[in-house]
Structure formats: C-alpha cells, structure tokens
Amino acid sequence: MRSQNLIRLSGAVALCALSLGAAHAATGGEPAAVVQVDVAPCLAAAAADDMDKAGSACASVIDNEKTAKADLVKALVARGALYARHDQVDRAIADDSRALQLDPTLADLFNARGELWLKKGDKPKAVQDFGAALKIDPNHEKAKANHKAMARELERIGAQMAVAGKPSFNCRSAARAVEKAICANRELADLDREIFASNARVIWEARSPAEAKALQREQDEFIARRNAGYGRAGYDLKKAMQERLQRINGVDGY
Fold first, then answer.
1. Given CA atoms 202, 204, 209, 212 in this order, what sign does their dihedral have?
2. pLDDT at 26
3. Residue 241, Cβ neighbours under 10 Å: how many?
4. Which of 113, 145, 149, 108 is nearest to 128 (CA)?
C-alpha cells in the first residue's frame, strides 16, 4: 500500500516538473515580464487640452491596479488640471484629493485645490489648503498671495458684520421718512450700505471722468426717485433697492 502511494506521489512530482519546464521553455528561459502602464498618452493629451483623448488615456492609467504610485499621481494631477481648465470643479477636486492622499507633500496641488474651493465658495476649505501649501513650502508665492487675500477677505467680512444693520448714512441726522424707514429696518439698512459701497466701487473702476460722472448721476437719480416714491401707493422700497443693487453689480452680482 505504501509503495503504491509513493508511486502516485512520484508521478505527480514528475508532471509538475514537466509543466514548469514547458512554461520555462515557452518564455525563452526568462521569467514573465511585468507589463508597465504607460502614462505618457494621458500626460500628452492633458497638456494638449484634449478632453476626449485625455478621458480615455488617463482613465486607462488611473483605473488600472497595476499602475505605479508615482504614475498614478501624475495622471491624477494632469487630469485634475484639465478638469479645472474646463470648469469641471468637482471632478478636479476629486482628482486632486486622491492625488494628495497618495502624496501629501505636493504644495502646488494644495494651492490648486484651494483655488478650486474658492470657486465653489467654500472659503474655510480654501484657507485650509493654502495653509497646508505654506506648511510644505513657506516660500510658495501663489499660496502666500492666496492666503493673504483670504485674510483680507475674512477681515472685510468681519468689518461688514460689525456694521450689519447700519445704513450708509448717519441715522441720527435722518430727516426724510424714507431714511427713517431704512434706519428702522435691518435688511433695508444693509441694502442701503451695499448700494453705497457698490456705487463707490464702479465709480472708482470707471474708465474715464465722464463715465464716473454718468455713474454718479444714475445714483443721484435713483435716490431722487426713492425719496419721491416712498409712501406712495404701490411703491415697494425693498424691491426698488434690490433692483438698484442688481443694476450696479450686474447679473453676476459683481
């Protein structure tokens, strides 16, 4: 019985040896080579701003489990930058975030993602990313400029909060009924202050003295209509002020 088991074992070993020998011979005596994932087409398409080619070329790199870490980061950064150039902000943030998880030492990428957060209006996350970039590279010029700008913006917001509910004029000297109504209403007071500030801005940005004069004349005419219209049947002070602010700032709000 024992001799029969030995015979079967010997046969199995011999068969295994033959199989290994055949495989060895089929590869010319060398072990099977590891297939390298080529990241170059992805980088080239992204650099050429070719969304169609980059879409497939980068996906083949990013979605391949065999892609080396360094190449994966390159592909994600390239595709993220391409998405950002085409205003696909959420996709760009997703690629940048994945790349930063793989390599959290990329100051440029933290700054780039911070600028994307700003586009989305998420100022806290933007400040956080600009700060992260500066921790990695304290001399990063773009991150320094962005961080400084955000500091000024936060300071401006704080200043606005400090004057919230106060109009552009001194309520103690308010004589007209419309002025007293604005002083008595927090929302109207904020609107008045925004109108004043926006009008000052567009006059400052005017391309010529004549244009600045025309802009101020528009504001004076609005004030005159407001003063004359308030209290009359059908006159909506809040609506009039909102329309004036929109006219100054434009459809986009600035």
1. positive
2. 45
3. 20
4. 113
